[in-house]
Amino acid sequence: MTGPVTGPVMGTVSRQRAATGLAVLVLAVVAIVFPLVFSSPVVTNYAVYALIFAAVVSAWNVFSGFSGYISLGHAVFFGSGAYTLGIAAKDWHINGVGVFGLLPLAAAVGAAIAIPFGLVALRVRRHTFIVITIAVFFIFQLMAFNFQSFTGGTTGMSAPFLPWSPTSFNDRFYYISLGCAAAMIVIAVLIRRSRFGLQLRAIRDDEDRARGLGVHAMRVKLMAFVLSGAVTAVVGGVWLLYLGQVQPQTGYDPLFDLALVLMAFLGGLGTIAGPVLGALIIAPGQLYLTIRLTNGYLSEILLGALFLLIVLFVPRGLVPTAGEWIRRLRTRGRPAVEPVTAPAPAAAPSSGAPPARPGEAPATEVRR
User: Fold this and answer.
1) SS3 label, residue 162
2) Model's pTM, two decimal places?
3) How many domains does the chain have?
4) Which of 262, 293, 311, 364 is the most buried (most CB within 10 A)?
5) What distances in angstroms separate CA 222 from CA 62, 67, 116, 219, 354, one per listed residue?
6) Nearest to 81 by CA among 163, 220, 180, 168
7) 194 domain residue, yes or no
C-alpha cells in the first residue's frame, strides 16, 4: 500500500527540488553578470540599493517574519552600524580597503545594542513590543542629533576614503552588497530548516502553547533578535561606505522600518524569497520616485497607498499567493496528492447459509 503512494509523492518532491535548484542557479548567474550587461552607473546604483535592502529585510524577516514580533526599530541597528564604522575609522585613522575590517566591529555593536534592547522589549507581547521599538528608535535618533562630539550632530559623519576609481566604484559595491544579501539568504534558509527556526515559528503560531511544549521563548526570541541586529549593523556599515555620509535623519530614518515592513508584506512575510522579492521591487521604486518627484512626500504617500492595497488584496504576499495559483493550475481542482483508500475487507467464509434478503438480518445459525 505504501509503494504506489510514496512513489508519485517522492517524484513530485524531486521535481520540485530540481526546479528550485535550477531557478537558484539561473538567478545566481543573472546576478553575477548583471553589472557586465548593465554597465551604467545609474542602473548599478539602483541595484546596489536593492541588494542592500534585500540583505536587511532578510535579517529583519529572520526575527519578525519567523517569530511574529513586528519590529519598527531596526533602523537603530542600521544607523548604529554606520556610525560605529565611521567613528572607528576616524579615531583610528583607518582609510582604504582596511575599513572593511571594521565590519565585524559594527556587528558586535549591533549585537551589544540588541541584547539590552531585546531584554526589555521582548518581555511584552507583540503589540506592546511595536511601541517599545518605536520609542527606542527615537531615543537613538535624538542621541545622534545631540551627541555632537562624536556623531557630528546635524552635520553627520563622512565615510573614510576608498581608493577606487569612479568607473568601478558602483560595480565593486554591487558585488559587496550581493555577497551580503546572498550570505543572509543562506543563513535564513538554514535557520528555517533548523530546530531553532521551528521554535520561532511555534512562537509565532501560539507562544503560550510553545512554552507549554518546552520552548524557551525568551531565549529563542532574543537569539533571533541579536542575530538580526548584528547583520543589520554590518549592512549599515556597507551603506555608509557606499553613500559616503551618514546623518541622524538618514541613519535613523523612521521610514526605513516602514519600508522593511512593506517589502516583507509585499513578497510574503515569513517566507525566504518573499522579502527579497519585495526589496527588489520596492527599493528601486522608492529611489526612483524620490529622484523623479519634486514633492519629497509624494513617494511616501504612494508607498502608503501601496501598503493598503497589499493588505486588502494580497494579504499573504506575492510569493504564497502565486504559489497557490500555480498549484491550482497544475492540479486543476484535483488534490495535489491522491488520497489513500483503505483496502476492502476480506469476505467472510461461507457457512452454507443462504444470503440475507434486503431488510433481513443475515443467518448465523449453524447446522448441527
Assistant:
1) coil
2) 0.85
3) 1
4) 262
5) 12, 11, 10, 5, 74
6) 180
7) yes
